Structures are given as C-alpha cells and as structure tokens.
Amino acid sequence: MSRSSFVTLLNYPSKLIENAVEEISKLPGIGKKTALRMALHLLKRDERQTLQLSEAIIAMRTKTQYCRQCHNISDEELCQICTNPKRDESVVCVVEDTRDVLAIENTSQYRGLYHVLGGIISPLEGIGPNDLKIESLLKRISEKQGTDLAVKEVILGLSPTMEGDTTAFYLTKRLKPLNVKITTIARGIPIGGDLEYADEITLGRSIVSRIVYE
C-alpha cells in the first residue's frame, strides 16, 4: 500500500486530530494529506506558538473591517492607503477585490487610491450591479466634484475576462455623466487572466501604460 493510500485510510489516533484535519482541509488548495501534516506539525510546536497562531486568526476574523471609503480590508475605519497624504487622490483605480490591490501595490508603480467592488458582474453566478460597491463609487466621485479633492481619472483595473469586460462596460456607462477620464490597464495582461497572477513587471507596465477606455 502506498503512503498516500495509507493516509487516506488512516484511522486517526485522536478525534481532536481528525477534527483539526477536517477544518484545515477546508482551506483552498489543501487536501487531507497536507492538512494532517500541518496538524501534526502544530501539535509538535511549542504550545505558545500554536496559541499565538490561533489568536492571530481569531483576531483577524473578529477585528478586521472594511474601509468606509474604498472598501479595502482595514484595521481602522479608513485604510492606510486612503489616509496616506502622499497618495494622489485625483486618481482612483477600481478593482475586483483586495487581492488585486495587493498585486498592484507590489508593482510600486501606482500612487493613486483604490475602490474595491467586492466582485464583478457575473449573471451565471447571480451577481449583478446591485451586489457590488458601485453606488458608493459614484457617490464618492460626485461628492468631491468641484473641490480640490476631485477625482479626475478612474482606472478600470479589472481582469480581462468576459465578466471583467462586462463590469468595465457597465461602469463606463455609469461614470460618463460624471465627466471623469476613464482609462483601463494596458493589455499586457493575458486575455482571460487574473491580475493577482500577473508578474509584477507586466502588471506595473500595464498600469503605467494605461489607455483611455472606449
């Protein structure tokens, strides 16, 4: 019998271990074999280290909030990007979720602000415009018009998939009456690809070389 088969058929020595494996294996990309290895590793570590991991996860889940302006994950009411005086408030990059913010930030090529939609329009999954943070984006832009903090450009930083293009098209129709420049990241990103998986150089160049959305 192979080692893999042995793990699959293993009768756990402890119900506690079995429960831990069941929960860990619910994480994306982690099977029962990997979950068992992680559970046994945690069991062998110093108890305090394991408790620190548990406390960090609990704190993350119970204390993490979303920025009231851009909807990015935050520790406070406003995130660190929105409160950073060195950021260019006249430019807002619209993205699907926090993973895209992290991907763009890692390029060090963008100094504007963000707006996290919380998803993209996908009729097949039952996700429509009303399920996204679109109205708050429009309100955010309209409220600042005519002030020193006015938004002059909106970058559509959405993955070049069918759903991403549908969302970009819808946003363009809603944004045009607000008289802001609408651009999109250059197509150095493969069609059908996700921003979070693009390498930093390609994504950085796509941000810098953005083009007017038509």
From TrEMBL:
List keywords of the entry alphabetically. Answer: DNA damage, DNA recombination, DNA repair, Metal-binding, Zinc, Zinc-finger
Alphabetically, which GO biological process terms does the record hold? DNA recombination; DNA repair
Checking CDD domains in the record gives: TOPRIM_recR
All copies of domain Toprim, residue ranges: 90-190
User: Molecular function (GO) terms listed?
Assistant: DNA binding; zinc ion binding
Q: Which InterPro entries match?
A: DNA_Rcmb_RecR, Rcmb_RecR, Rcmb_RecR_Znf, TOPRIM_dom, TOPRIM_RecR
C4-type zinc finger segments? 67-82
Q: PROSITE patterns this protein is in? A: RECR (PS01300), TOPRIM (PS50880)
Which family is this protein grouped under? Belongs to the RecR family.
Query: What function does the entry list?
Result: May play a role in DNA repair. It seems to be involved in an RecBC-independent recombinational process of DNA repair. It may act with RecF and RecO.
Q: PANTHER family attached here?
A: RECOMBINATION PROTEIN RECR
Under the heading NCBIfam families, the entry gives: recR (TIGR00615)
| Protein's name according to its UniProt entry | Recombination protein RecR
What is the native source organism of this protein?
Arcicella aurantiaca
